[in-house]
Amino acid sequence: MERLDNANPVVFDKMKEREVLPEEENDEIVDKFDSREIYDLIRSINDPEHPLTLEELNVVREAHVIVDDDRDAVKVVFTPTIPHCSMATLIGLSIRVQLLRALPERFKVDVCVEPGSHAQEGAVNKQLADKERVAAALENGHLLNVVNQCLTVKQN
């Protein structure tokens, strides 16, 4: 039996689905990306160890999503469930891949660990910020398969 880093994580309530406003459906109106829209893209990412989403584990929160549409920048700060989470880099990579796939290419995406929340914070952040390391990770078929599993929306 595989040993989990966090065998009994605290589970949080999901946020209600955002009501889509008529102006958001109107293709004639150009609306800027905001933190809720970005949060909606990442909240349903599956945790690699548990049958729960990053939202349910409170790993991602809307308050930790920073969007500057005018400067084409998105930053997501995530909080691993435990300080020694061995999946932190994989979680960050999944967030990054989800945003790179969903957002226009003009956006610079930064993903990092909440300061003080992980024992290897510097190493995790360095890996996630290094475009060449991210590209190399995504060339690894097994790792890409795991990321894709994290990004697959589960049916309730």
How would you describe the overall organization of this protein?
The structure is a single chain. The chain has 156 residues and is an alpha+beta fold. It has a single domain (31-149), classed as GMP Synthetase, Chain A, domain 3, CATH 3.30.300.130. The chain has 6 helices and 3 strands. The chain has helices at 22-25, 35-42, 88-102, 121-129, 131-139, 141-151, and strands at residues 65-68, 73-78, 108-113. Strands 1-2-3 form a 3-stranded mixed beta sheet. The longest helix has 15 residues, at 88-102. The radius of gyration is 16 Å and the shape is globular. It starts with 21 loop residues before the first helix and ends in a 5-residue tail after the last helix. The mean pLDDT is 89.
Mean pLDDT: 89
Beta percentage is 5-15%
Rg from alpha-carbon coordinates: 16 Å
Helix content: 25-40%
Q: Which CATH-level-2 architecture?
A: 2-Layer Sandwich
- The CA-CA distance between the termini, in Å, is 26 Å
Low-confidence stretches: none
User: Sheet with the most strands?
Assistant: 3 strands, mixed
Overall number of strands: 3
DSSP helix count? 6
CATH class: Alpha Beta
CATH homologous superfamily heading: Fe-S cluster assembly (FSCA)
Q: Could you name the CATH topology?
A: GMP Synthetase, Chain A, domain 3
Q: How are the strands of the biggest sheet laid out side by side?
A: 1-2-3
What structural class should be given to the helix and strand makeup? alpha+beta
What's the number of domains? 1
List SSEs in N-to-C order.
Answer: HHEEHEHHH
Shape: globular
